[in-house]
Design a protein that fits this description.
With about 70 residues, the protein is an alpha+beta fold. It has 2 helices and 3 strands. A 3-stranded antiparallel β-sheet has the order 1-3-2.
Length: about 70
Protein backbone atom coordinates (compact mmCIF):
# COMPACT_ATOMS: atom_id res chain seq x y z
CA UNK A 1 0.00 0.00 0.00
CA UNK A 2 1.31 3.43 -0.90
CA UNK A 3 0.31 6.85 0.40
CA UNK A 4 -0.58 9.48 -2.18
CA UNK A 5 -0.59 13.02 -0.86
CA UNK A 6 -1.58 16.39 -2.19
CA UNK A 7 -4.48 15.25 -4.39
CA UNK A 8 -7.26 17.62 -5.36
CA UNK A 9 -10.27 17.62 -3.10
CA UNK A 10 -12.40 16.84 -6.16
CA UNK A 11 -10.49 13.62 -7.00
CA UNK A 12 -12.58 10.48 -7.13
CA UNK A 13 -11.57 6.85 -6.69
CA UNK A 14 -11.91 6.05 -10.38
CA UNK A 15 -9.47 8.83 -11.37
CA UNK A 16 -6.86 7.66 -8.87
CA UNK A 17 -7.34 4.03 -9.93
CA UNK A 18 -6.96 4.91 -13.63
CA UNK A 19 -3.75 6.81 -13.02
CA UNK A 20 -2.12 4.17 -10.81
CA UNK A 21 -3.29 1.12 -12.76
CA UNK A 22 -0.80 2.06 -15.49
CA UNK A 23 1.83 0.44 -13.26
CA UNK A 24 0.01 -2.76 -12.29
CA UNK A 25 -3.13 -4.27 -10.83
CA UNK A 26 -4.66 -2.02 -8.20
CA UNK A 27 -6.50 -3.92 -5.46
CA UNK A 28 -7.99 -0.90 -3.73
CA UNK A 29 -8.04 2.86 -3.55
CA UNK A 30 -9.02 4.45 -0.26
CA UNK A 31 -9.67 8.18 -0.10
CA UNK A 32 -10.21 9.31 3.50
CA UNK A 33 -13.29 11.49 3.91
CA UNK A 34 -13.96 14.17 6.51
CA UNK A 35 -17.11 14.18 8.65
CA UNK A 36 -18.49 16.84 6.30
CA UNK A 37 -18.06 14.57 3.25
CA UNK A 38 -14.95 16.06 1.63
CA UNK A 39 -11.81 14.09 0.85
CA UNK A 40 -8.77 14.89 2.96
CA UNK A 41 -6.46 15.51 -0.01
CA UNK A 42 -4.78 12.11 0.12
CA UNK A 43 -5.34 8.49 -0.83
CA UNK A 44 -4.00 5.00 -0.21
CA UNK A 45 -3.43 2.76 -3.23
CA UNK A 46 -2.87 -0.97 -2.80
CA UNK A 47 -1.29 -3.12 -5.51
CA UNK A 48 -1.20 -6.89 -5.95
CA UNK A 49 2.59 -6.81 -6.38
CA UNK A 50 5.10 -4.80 -4.41
CA UNK A 51 7.13 -4.24 -7.60
CA UNK A 52 4.15 -2.43 -9.15
CA UNK A 53 3.86 -0.15 -6.13
CA UNK A 54 7.57 0.65 -6.40
CA UNK A 55 7.19 1.41 -10.12
CA UNK A 56 4.31 3.81 -9.37
CA UNK A 57 6.35 5.57 -6.70
CA UNK A 58 9.36 5.84 -9.02
CA UNK A 59 7.31 7.24 -11.90
CA UNK A 60 4.78 9.41 -10.09
CA UNK A 61 6.70 10.73 -7.08
CA UNK A 62 6.49 14.50 -7.23
CA UNK A 63 4.08 14.35 -10.18
CA UNK A 64 0.82 14.07 -8.25
CA UNK A 65 -0.55 17.39 -7.22
CA UNK A 66 -3.60 19.51 -6.95
CA UNK A 67 -3.88 19.57 -10.75
CA UNK A 68 -3.97 15.77 -11.18
CA UNK A 69 -7.75 15.39 -11.10
CA UNK A 70 -10.64 17.44 -12.43
Amino acid sequence: QIFVGNIRFSCEEEEIRDLFSKFGTVVSVIIPITKTGYNKGCAYVTYVREADAKAAIKNLNGQIGRASCR
